[in-house]
Amino acid sequence: MKRYVLMIAVALTLCAVSVGAQTDTTAFDRYSLWLGGHYTDFNDYAKKVGEYRLIDDNVFGEFRLDLLSRRGSTLFSLNGHFFDEKNILGQVNVTTGNRLAASFQYRSLVHQLGQDLLSNLAAREAINGAPGGKMLTHEILDPGADYNIHRQEVLSTFDVLLSERGNVHMVAAHRMILREGTDQSRSVSHCFSCHAESRTRQVQNTTHNLELGLQADLTEDKTIGYRFGYRQFKSDAPDAYAPYDDAKHPTAITNAGTEAEFDSRQAYEDTTLRVNALPQTEKMSHRVRFKGNLGKGRFSTALGYARTENQETDLSSDAVTGTINYSHPLGDQTRLVAKVYAARQEADDPFIDLPTYRAGRPGGAAFANLEFDYTRYSVIDRTHARATAEVIHRLNPRWTVSVLGGYEMIDRDDYPVADDGLQTKRFIGQIGARFRKGLNYSSRMKYRFEKTSDPFVSGRGLFEYPGVDSLARDWNGTGATFGFIFYHDREDLRYQAITTEPTDFHQFEWNSNWQATPKVGLSIGVRGFYDKNSDLDSLDVSHFSFIPNLNVNLTPSDKLAATVGYTYNHYKSRGPVSVALFDG
Amino acid sequence: MIAPFHYGSEYQMVDYTTNTHTFYLSAGLAATAKLRLNGLVTYNLAEGSLEEGILPEEEIFYNGVQVLAHQDFSFEEMSEYSNLDYELLRIAAGMEYQLTPQIMLTVDGELADLTDNEGYVFGNESGSFYMIRSGFRFNF
Lengths: 584, 140
Known about the structure:
The complex is a heterodimer. Chain A is mainly beta.
């Protein structure tokens, strides 16, 4: 990593020196070097107050370097800050007129992570006020563990003029993000003694993002471009594993005589399995852009295709997207801005292969050898379209007003029911106004309203019917009766669509800037929203946000400047809390 | 009658409310031709709470019979686990003194104090740190 960073930085520096040596008409150099150190002392719990610092009571050497150099049309800058071994920032930029623009940035930081004490995972059944029966317990296998992540990011960009004829540019960009360290891995065993455990997990994730493209002017007012994208995410950390307890029936403490029967109802138990696994993903994309003038207006269009694949599970998704933006003057003081977006997304539907339920157990065809395998249809399969049109009109030198209308549609193929997905429709309305009086006062406000029909809901209901009778009558389609409710059965008992998506959405923003005197400036504003969903039977889910802010800038003399400000943020959400009720 | 071990579900509508206050003050002063001072104070107060949901276990009936009166469905502590209440105070101050036209001496410090009045997922997170920094700046 360090060698890679050094190579790119040296290459850019040499590039700047060689190009800059060509001309020397307007040359200057500015350097600033700060050398010093700092001492930090932490008390009590340090991971929150020092979330992005090294938790170490120690003295650290520190330096900053800023360099700006110009030779003719070539501008070279270098900025670096070494705070400690984990907190480093370095930037190099080179531009040579329209011929070359290159940049390189290295950023390193540390993120301290707390340890979830799992203290909410402690409960016990109580009958007539006396504790007893089933319980939920937890165990932290690495108490006091020091979790932290060292994040390093390298970003390189190049823009080279290949030909002045047609203004042909080649662009390239590469971003690498490396996350190394440890975090907390959690697992939960089921049945009899619900038992949660946590342990240390190694983290070593790498993300590469590469873009290559060409851009050229077809005519004086028409430009076309193509860009290829590649993204890869992988984890090189060793797999995390967790043991799962020997399952026992909640009413059979010793397991004697019931083990074979109860084990046959579990998907897994008394084993060690891989947990908290990360996907190994690869994404490739192609994008063509075309922009130019059309009549009195100006347009820009883009057509893209992307394919993402999880190489570990061999599952993939595809997306085709298209956009058209058009701006057209309707008069001297009026402008129309129209935007259209459309996308088609499809993802593989994985087959969930579960162990046979009660395999080989007695009880007749009604209760033994049941298959609960199913295909999990993806909610991603959809057609998505959105169109908006905004008219902006300047009433006079002080006032500008705007009106926006739009329509959005999301048509899902298979969710929540295969071949009969939800179709969400949304109407959008927005009005806005800007006011400016000279250079001393400006103000803007906006109100937006969205009306949505059939917003996305959870395909599995939030509540459960008390369905022992109905399930017993319909068990496995045989009409047979059975005295228990199995966990799998509970899926058939669930009802009540639930969502956090609103049907009505209101948003308001207002802010004002006032330079009262040459020495006093004032900025005041408020923004907020209210949304609700009244289509969920008796569940009136709603959200409300209210955020006013005030900022005052004071410059009482040319030697003193001060800023004072206050922001209040109020947020309230209303929703259901639901629990399933059992007796034994 | 088959013992109905499963009685479906009950729910309550509850509010989750958060309130945060952020105050800041920064200032810079050119005290003399060679001495510059700067300071910053920020204060954050954040509170969050979930309304307690009281589930009507006394009203649960099966075939007309009250069935779960003997069970204790107590969820008082569940709502408390979502409570947040913390204050964060940060104070920073610094000075730059010009020793020569090209060299400056800098001294600055920072103090941060977090008070956690509830103790959330990670336990009580109250803590503090201070930092003292000094060095020389060379301008060319």
